[in-house]
Amino acid sequence: MRTTAGFEVVEELPVASVRLVGVLPHLDRPFEYAVTPATAAAGPGMRVRVRFSGKDTEGIVLERRAEPTTDRALAPLTRLVSEDVVVPSAMMRVCEEVAERCAGTVGDVLRLALPPRHARAEKADRAAAEK
């Protein structure tokens, strides 16, 4: 697996397929990124930040895999925004169906379907779940 220079990737499932939120229609497809040790906890349905076209962009991890499907060098996931699963697989399927039925993009449907992130509420939910 080729990567852009200057970072280390994890050994187990080092490739993340990411659906970008709110991108242009011709870019409405999954993109692959390398998983670094700092983002090793990233899993399906979690929010991440990636560099895309020179900008810090929000995305949702669709899956992790052992090998990329492209020959291009992979850029790293910039950071894991939250360890909470915000888009379960069933919700992703609904977003894809809504986009297809309404002639929209999955990225736009995700942008409208996801509430803004509230770190304090996420922390409280995790604390309550641990009790």
TrEMBL record:
A Pfam family (short name) is: PriA_3primeBD
Task: List the Gene3D superfamilies.
Answer: PriA, 3(prime) DNA-binding domain
Q: Does the keyword Nucleotide-binding apply?
A: yes
Q: Which residues form the Primosomal protein N' 3' DNA-binding domain?
A: 25-115
Gene Ontology molecular functions: 3'-5' DNA helicase activity; ATP binding; DNA binding
Tell me if Ion transport is a UniProt keyword of this record.
no
Q: Which keywords does UniProt give here?
A: ATP-binding, DNA-binding, Nucleotide-binding
GO BP annotations listed: DNA recombination; DNA replication initiation; double-strand break repair
InterPro entries per UniProt = PriA_3primeBD, PriA_3primeBD_sf
**Name this polypeptide is given:** Primosomal protein N
Q: Which organism is it from?
A: Candidatus Brachybacterium intestinipullorum
